[in-house]
Design brief:
Mean pLDDT: 85
Helix content: over 70%
Strand content: under 5%
Order of helices and strands: HHHHHHHHH
Low-confidence stretches: 31-36
Number of helices: 9
Amino acid sequence: MCVSLAQAILNEQDEALCSELFLSLTGSLVQTNLSSDVKSDSAIIRKAKEMIHANLEHVLKLDEICTELDVSKFQFIRLFKTHTGISPYQYFLNCKIERAKQVIETHRDVYAAVAACGFFDLTHLNKHFKSVYGTTALEYISHIY
């Protein structure tokens, strides 16, 4: 965990990813008593997912999400991982890639997906697309048409 955080910082990764790694590291060092109210927890996760889906063009800051949901960063990340099996940042990336795939299928244009989904460039899209689907966006479009 510590090495992942150091690599993310040195590689100047997104602030959201660095925050998640930092909070996960500190969370592993501190025992906390998380909420046991399953209905409340599910509502928090549902609202967080709605916020993420509504803001796929840019990375929502953890502070923004946690302020809206009235939970601490640590509690939110732990709760999200417990309910979804992945971090909020990975969920965000997966949603962006799924949306990019839909744009590619609809418009038959990888560059439309880059623009519509807020990727820096095609290389950035391809890197994340390949991590989810095992192929680049360019390879994917060539196979479907």
